[in-house]
Amino acid sequence: ALAAHTILPVIGVPMDSSSLNGLDALISTAQMPSGVPVATFAIGKAGAINSAVFCARIFSMTNPEIRTRLTRFRSSGSKLPNTK
After folding, report:
1. Residue burial 35-72, b: 16+ Cβ < 10 Å; e: rest
2. Which whole-number Å values give the CA distances from 31 to 58, 67, 80, in the listed order?
3. Is 69 a domain residue?
4. Residue predicted with more confidence, 2 or 41
5. Percent of the chain scored above 70 by pLDDT?
């Protein structure tokens, strides 16, 4: 578990790679002990996309160019593909 060995933020995106459709990966990502935080997203492609948007939102707090692009993206009605 990378999160146990760093003070940097860790983002977890469970992948659908088993007969349990990623549920095992979700549980192992979300069930971290106290003091070992992991930002956990949905299983698979949707989680990967959401984690990228989440990171962009964090970076936009200190980067005006990213903030402008995110604002433009949202106001244009642009949508990312609906994925599972």
Report:
1. eeebebbbbbebbbbbbeeeeeeeebeeeeebeeebee
2. 23, 32, 29
3. yes
4. 41
5. 92
- Asked if 41 contacts 51 with a C-beta cutoff of 8 angstroms, the reply is yes
Residues 60, 45: Cα–Cα separation, whole Å: 23
Q: How many folded domains does the chain comprise?
A: 1
In a domain, 81, yes or no: no
* Angstrom distance (rounded) from CA 56 to CA 8: 16
pLDDT digits (tens, 9 = 90+) for 23-53: 999 999 999 999 999 999 999 999 999 999 9
Is the model's pLDDT at 83 over the cut of 60? no
CA 42 centroid distance within chain: 8
- Between CA 67 and CA 59 the distance in angstroms is 8
